[in-house]
TrEMBL record:
GO terms for biological process: transmembrane transport. Belongs to the binding-protein-dependent transport system permease family. It is a multi-pass membrane protein. This is Peptide/nickel transport system permease protein. The chain crosses the membrane at residues 12-30, 99-120, 132-159, 179-198, 283-309. The keyword 4Fe-4S does not apply. InterPro entries: BPD_transp_1_N, MetI-like, MetI-like_sf. It is found in: Cell membrane. PANTHER family: DIPEPTIDE TRANSPORT SYSTEM PERMEASE PROTEIN DPPB-RELATED.
Amino acid sequence: MLKYMGRRGLQLIPVLFGVTLAVFIMSQIIPGDAVDVQLGGSATQEDRERLREELGLNENLVLQYLGYLGNLVQGDFGQSVTYGEPALGVLLSRLGNTVIIAIPAVIVAAVVGISAGSWAARKPNSGRDRGVTVLVLFLTSMPSFWLGMILILIFGLTFRVTPVSGMESIVGGGGFLDIAHHAVLPVVTLAAWSVAIITRMTRASMLQTLGSDYVRTARSRGIPERKVIYGHALGNAMPPVITVIGLQAGFLLSGAVLTETVFSWPGIGLAMSQAITSRDTALLQGGILLIAIIFVIINFIVDVLYAYFNPKIKIG
């Protein structure tokens, strides 16, 4: 197992290298000049040239990229012009807020998706199976920002049972229950798309497992159907579902950009959205890079767990 983990860990190096290269190229393509953003339009030509020299913008692209890479290795993601602080510090201070809605969203998506998928697979082509299929199509085709606004309209403005924005109440807020109350709609919005994907994968994997010889043998021996489903079939159907859950955990972080913007939730996503508006390139680059690193780490953990539960992977 350690040899496999070491091999997979080495494979992460070119992936992360590619991510930094993509982020750097993106910063060169997007419109706007970092000097204009930092100094404004009223700066003199001398000040502009001095800042360009300080930022290394007069160097060729290869040297600029090597300088960018060297700063990243030292933990320097650049200076946020919006907050006047190191971009990494701004992002890390907001990472906890994103985790508050991302982890419950993963749990909700996994529990609801596995339950709905296995429930539908027990009676394929029945009414409930078709109902789950329609619901899955509805959730996968619905943009998360639109779902968020609909939930705000229904539960926040019409029935007034949930807050419509922010992370805590202005007066007397900040406690666990208050934050949890504010997180209900963002979590539901963030989890919706993943629920559909996990449900679809669970249903397909369960149908394949339920058609196996050992399941037919178990049924022919008179073992109760509930024990066949949850004691034998569901466990063997889980490996591909676990992989999908791991991938969805990474996608939820990137999906937080839209969700946090809709609900004004002060996480990494909202900071990145504001960075786009204010052309805060360092903060935007840092946010993308941080999410990509977390995504890669999550996939590494999923691969290790997959190999642990399925030893055939180690041989491959």
